[in-house]
């Protein structure tokens, strides 16, 4: 039931990331404007994550009760909502940085980061976890872990590519 509520956070997140990609692509060559755009987009995203995460956090049982009346489902959905909403900052930051990297034209790098963090990590994590005795809290940690890994990889990629972007920017002004 909580995944339906999570979709209301995910859609604006993807929209902001797409806007970051478009803005970056349209302003390639203007490093100052891109930096400002990244800061504004991340600020918007963090505001969105605080607003939506806080709203979900304080209204999680009522929101989940819209989709089900089963008390155990409401309980587990509330636990999931409490945990995931605490990490929406990582999700939005991850998506925005991937959007910026896509805007710079580094689509292969973003594909690899996405595959590693959202596919391979989750499959490996769940395969290893299912061989032991997994608890519900073990299972729901896979999403925040993958968001943080994806954010870390995006930051690393962004850090490595910043020299390439800066040198390309300076060569445009010669």
What does this structure look like?
By secondary structure, the chain is mainly alpha-helical. The chain contains seven helices and no strands. The protein has helices spanning 2-26, 31-65, 71-85, 88-103, 107-131, 136-140, 142-172. The longest helix has 35 residues, at 31-65. It starts with a helix and ends with a helix.
Indicate the topology:
Elements lengths: L1 H25 L4 H35 L5 H15 L2 H16 L3 H25 L4 H5 L1 H31 L2
Helix pairs in contact: 1-2, 1-4, 2-3, 2-4, 4-7, 5-7
Properties at a glance:
mainly alpha, disordered C terminus, single chain, 174 residues, 0% strand, 87% helix
Share in helix: over 70%
Rg, Å, rounded: 18 Å
SSE topology string: HHHHHHH
> How does the overall form come out from the CA principal axes?
flat
Sketch the major β-sheet. Answer: none
Give the terminus-to-terminus CA distance. Answer: 57 Å
Put simply, the count of helices is 7
Structural class: mainly alpha
* Assembly of the depicted chains: single chain
TL;DR?
The protein has about 170 residues and is mainly α. About 85% of the residues lie in helices and about 0% in strands. Helix 1 packs parallel to helix 4.
